[in-house]
Amino acid sequence: MWCRDMNARSSESVRDAAGDLQQEETISREVVVVNAAGLHARPADLLAREARKWQSRIAFVNDSQRADGKSILELLTLAAEAGTRLVVEATGPDAREALDAIGSLFESRFNEHENDQES
Amino acid sequence: MKFSDFVANDAVRSHVHAATKEGVIREMAQSLVDAGKIAPGDLEGIVKAIMKREDLGSTGIGRGVAVPHTKHPSVNKLVGTVAVSQQGIDFQSLDGEPVQLFFLLVSPPDRPGDHLRALENISRQLRDDSFCRLLKAAKEPVDIQHLLEEADSHGVVS
Question: Which CATH number characterizes residue A22's domain?
């Protein structure tokens, strides 16, 4: 089941451009790695590129670790195989849009076909 | 997964001669042939498959590192090797920087998990700046072998 609820998990204080203190919310959603090859180099590249389009900080979290969503190296350290559930957290002004875009990449299987010989 | 689980020690190279992307891939694949890890007759097919994967997007993942790889039915377990280019090679990296550190992987088509765990190990070690620096400074293949052993046992101490 896709968990489509985005929950406000925490908030932190940041200063906006005018120097005013603002509360920044962290929202999160669950994603599932559905492509057979898992989160290997090419999906990690796609995800990091997508994550870097947004101002928000983006993190992927599994049971034991946390990876910066904008870093391919960190995403690869998750070694997320097919079937793995990850929580994506976004903190920043465009967090909601960022989570939508990232969720769509997972749902599209990173455009991979299961009989692809490429990895 | 540890480096010793997939890196063919005899195929490690501290000074690649090639100056091009295909050249370094060919040189590394040849080193796996010389180490007896892949059959001479599979060399061309493997080089071609790795280049085809590169066409989908460079495996130069930044920080002067590339992980050229392919699946190939001729291997029944993951095999790989490590090479260092002293001058750096244009690999169309994602960050545009030349690549000095290469980790080449050939995996059986039906073992995506092993490939992921090898990538995990490589990327985890590469987050350590001293590991990258010491790899680039390797004078002989044995320096690389020792560094990989050290990373396997407790991580590189800076």
Answer: 3.30.1340.10
Dump pLDDT digits (tens) for A24-40. 789 999 999 999 999 99
Cβ atoms A28, A46 nearer than 8 A = no
Domains and CATH numbers, chain B: 3-153 (3.40.930.10)
Put simply, the answer to whether B61 touches A45 (Cβ < 8 Å) is yes
Give the total number of structural domains in chain A.
1
Residue A80, domain member (yes or no)? yes
ipTM score for this prediction: 0.81
The predicted-structure confidence for B21-75, as pLDDT tens digits, reads as follows 999 999 999 999 999 999 999 999 999 999 999 999 999 998 899 999 999 999 9
Active site residues of B: 69
CB contact under 8 A, A80 and B116: yes
Query: Is position A119 within any domain?
Result: no
Phi, psi of B127 (to 5 degrees): -70, -20
Residue that the structure tokens 């059959």 belong to: B39
Non-local (6+) Cβ contacts of B105 within 8 A are: B6, B67, B68, B69, B70, B78, B79, B80, B115, B118, B119
